[in-house]
Amino acid sequence: MTKTKLIAAIALVALVPFAAIAKPIAAPAKPAATAVVKNSTPDGWTDDFEAAKKQAAAGGKDLLVAFSGSDWCGWCIRLDHEVFSKDRFTEKVSELFVPVYIDNPNNTNRLSEIAKKQNGALTQYYLIRGFPTVLLMDAAGDVFAETGYVEGGPEKYIEHLKKISAEGKDSAQYKTQKAIARVPAGPNRAKQLDELLATMPLSLQLFNIDYIQEILAADPDGKLGLRAKYPYFTTVMPIEEEFRLTMNKLSKLADEAVKAAGSPKAKGERMTIMNNVLKENLQMFDGIRVRAESAKKLFPKGASAIRPLQEILIQLHYMTQTAKGLPMTPPPNID
After folding, report:
1. Long-range contacts formed by 163-170: CB under 8 A, 24+ apart
2. What is the pLDDT of residues 248-298, one digit of tens each?
3. Are 86 and 154 in contact (CB under 8 A)?
4. What are the E-state strand segments in the chain?
5. What is the pTM of this model?
6. What CA–CA distances, in Å, run from 8 to 11, 68, 98, 132, 133?
7. Which of 33, 101, 287, 308 is least surrounded, with the fewest CB atoms within 10 Å of its CB?
8. Rounded to an integer, what distance in angstroms lies between the CA atom of residue 313 and that of residue 310?
9. CA–CA separation, 35 vs 17, rounded Å?
10. CA-based torsion, 121, 124, 126, 128: positive or negative
11. Is-contact 98 59, C-beta < 8 A?
């Protein structure tokens, strides 16, 4: 299942007070007792993802999967306190979902043995970039909705979940995901995937990029006529990657020049050295500029596929002005 997303979330650090324990001075030393740390999974929830999937399948339910940082993420702590730990929430939400808590605490003693083995991998697999992230999934583990902290308490949160659940199950993204899951392996798989994805909007194609790559791999020389249907992936993405690698190379050259000049240098002097390096290596970007301009012609004006090419051309424009000491003016013909 593909979950490429352009999701942006912010995790705030919670300042958790702790008590200082005074040690008796005169008393003889005693073996230190091991503190019992309560499992961070809220009552009525499970932290066993695979068991939850089986339970959901058997009960005809979906999964409510909360990715948290229970001892460091401020918004996670608020969501746990205001919603997840409330008995009336757990009781009501369990009528619709199997609630699963995937914690990523600093203190891993808060985790069960199952959670220690699975939570990191699940967080990576579902591309979790911020906490709290709450995913609604079907019993197969396919995501159909995403949310996070919502103020208002248990009742409001349940109504919110019902709303995004209905919308998510009806979304083109989820329906495409389930249709792809039904495509069997075999010699016709690439053509069947192509039938599902070729006419999809770019946003959905990006969400299913693994399957796009599978289609392209099945038609390496374009003789099947599949590669031509995906110009963003065969043209734009390679240009983006070349630009990224070239920028990294230029940055390394600038760092080496500053070091060779006797770093650290004052800010103004460092900038002069780096600008000189940029000026001396502008030709590194000539081919990228030509290819980006040419690639734009593959798409209709205003198409979302053009945006990354425009961003590259804009950056090249200002880099050229900086290197040549020219006044900063807007780039021409960048629409």
Report:
1. 164/136, 165/62, 165/96, 165/136, 168/136, 168/144, 169/144
2. 999 999 999 988 888 766 777 888 888 899 999 999 999 999 999 999 999
3. yes
4. 62-68, 97-103, 133-137, 143-147
5. 0.65
6. 10, 16, 26, 12, 11
7. 33
8. 5
9. 17
10. positive
11. yes
